[in-house]
Amino acid sequence: MKAAVVREPKAPAVLEDRPVPEPKSGEVLIRVHACGVCHSDLMVQQGLFPFAKYPRVPGHEVAGVVEKVGPGVTWPQVGDRAGMPWLFSSCGHCKLCVQGDEVMCPFAEVTGVTKDGGYQEYMIAPAAYVAPIPDALDFAEAAPLMCAGLTVFNGLRNARFQPGQKVAIIGLGGLGHLGVLYAKAMGGRVAVISSSPDKEAEARGLGAEHFINTKAKKAADALKEWDGGADIILATAPSSEAATDAFPGLAPDGTLVVLGVGPGNITVSPMDLLGGRRHLMGSPSGSRKDIRATLDFSAHHRVLPHITKFSLEEAGKALELMHAGKLSGRAVLMLR
Predict the structure, then answer these.
(1) Which one of 56, 143, 146, 176 has the fewest beta carbons within 10 angstroms of its own beta carbon?
(2) Is residue 326 predicted with pLDDT exceeding 90?
């Protein structure tokens, strides 16, 4: 089989011929149909994860079909549509695991970072951590939902979103456009914050009622004029400066949710925190219960990513375009 491999930090993704792996006890073999290209894959390639292990096959937005099951596996079955998200496995017995928050388990393994992911024709996955893909989603649509969709959807839920609330999205890239779609589908009002004025038409086309061009006006000032401020701000762009600038634009009891990791620090005024009882929080991708909720909601409400398709042979090209900021929506490697 063919696999795109990052052999060491800062090395390009290169194609290798590898034998098809055999699933062991408790494992399944997934025949990969599509794999999304995430910013975290770029971080693996650039050596920015201190816990990554090399050589590594990236990819944690995996969608495919179960090809074979190992001893003792009763679910999923051969032929089932299955995906793998960021969370590859966890210890299963710590406090976080038993309360359903295994994505924060200190012993968690990460798909495409500490374990080989979906930039290959076949991959091994622990049966207990596979996500069933609804029939209403095709593989190319489902793949980016395994991380980008999950991260945004779960971020809104962790911020305790309620229908009718105002949600501001920082950035309109691979995460940001899904943020608009999910917030609208969940019954929210949406504003987009961007330093690119040419994004306004796209933002409004996705359903945003308000567009804030930060080159023309400070984000916080514009948000305060939006009926008193945003109830939730989703910081999807990897810019600590943008999150810092937007935070004072929260309404009282509002929450800024950090979803995109960038350099530098987010700084907030104690008066902004105390005076409005505002919140600053991070939200990682999600656990098994969260990916199932994301996929079911997406299938029912037809919340689908905007994608650009590449072949497995073009994995390096997709990463280069992402690094250069030249990708729109989500890139997806098609293997079938």
Answers:
(1) 56
(2) no
| Co-location of 7 and 143 in the same domain | yes
Rounded Cα distance, 70 and 78, in Å: 10
Q: Tokens for 16, please give them.
A: 């290798």
Q: How many domains does the chain have?
A: 2
Regarding whether 177 and 53 lie in a shared domain, the answer is no
Do 51 and 84 fall within a single domain?
yes
Q: In terms of domains, do 187 and 260 share one?
A: yes
Q: pLDDT tens, 79-133? A: 999 999 999 999 999 999 999 999 999 999 999 999 999 999 999 999 999 999 9
**DSSP structure class, residue 242:** H
**Domain containing 238: what range?**
160-282
Res. 184: pLDDT tops 90: yes
For residue 174, what is the DSSP state?
T
Dist CA 242 CA 208 (whole Å): 19
- pTM across the whole model: 0.95
Q: Which two tokens stand for residue 171?
A: 């950035």
The structure tokens listed for 35 are 């794999």
Tell me how far apart the alpha carbons of residues 93 and 98 are, in angstroms, rounded to a whole number: 6
Chain segment 245-288, per-residue pLDDT in tens? 999 999 999 999 999 877 889 999 999 999 999 999 999 999 99
What pLDDT digit, counting tens, does each position of 217-256 carry?
999 999 999 999 999 999 999 899 999 999 999 999 999 9
Q: How many other C-beta atoms lie within 10 A of the C-beta of residue 161?
A: 22
Q: pLDDT, tens digit, for every residue of 312-321?
A: 999 999 999 9
Q: What is the mean pLDDT of residues 156-174?
A: 96
Residue 153, domain member (yes or no): no
d(CA 271, CA 139): 47
Q: How many angstroms separate the CA atoms of 308 and 64, rounded?
A: 18
User: Do 190 and 134 share a structural domain?
Assistant: no
The answer to whether residue 106 is domain-embedded is yes
What separation in angstroms does the CA of 236 have from each of 136, 262, 263, 326?
27, 10, 14, 17
Same domain, 39 and 12: yes
